[in-house]
Amino acid sequence: MGAINKKSLFVLIARLVLAGVFVMAALPKIQDPIAFAASVAAFRVINSDLSAWVALFLPWLELILGLGILLPAIRRTSAALIGLLLFIFIVLHTSAWVRGLDISCGCFGSETGEAASDYRWLILRNALLLGATLLVLRQDWRNSVLIDN
């Protein structure tokens, strides 16, 4: 396998991981939006009415973006929006940590047996996923520049 093939394989793995994480995060929240709304409200950033709307909208967006990062026609847009969401998640987790909130993040629906989040882990996980997203975006940008020239 040449260097180009290894890089392409690594980018494909990054895309598959991102797709898997976002689809797996979306499904339990779609099944139980009430529990997810409570998780959103626990961050104390928006009111409970808006939390309910976020709980209804966000999981479907995560599902669409998770699948979209696998489709060439919408891969770049999906990756960019995934990157934006991951950045927002990092900010929210950092904010909750700094404010001393002892809450479950609700990242993958209702996490049973886990009363509080390990903010260091959540921030690291999202930062690594953001890095994978940037890798996908960089590769797609390079491919489009090569095709356009």
Task: Explain what you see.
- The chain has five helices and no strands.
- By secondary structure, it is mainly alpha-helical.
- α1 (3-31) crosses α2 (33-42) and α2 packs across α3.
- The protein starts with a helix and ends with a helix.
Which short descriptors sum up this protein?
149 residues; mainly alpha; 5 helices
Helices, strands, pairings?
Layout: H1 3-31, H2 33-42, H3 48-68, H4 75-98, H5 119-148
From the spread of the alpha carbons, the general shape counts as globular
How many distinct folded domains?
Answer: 1
Largest sheet: none
Strand content: under 5%
Low-confidence stretches: none
Compact description:
By secondary structure, the chain is mostly helical.
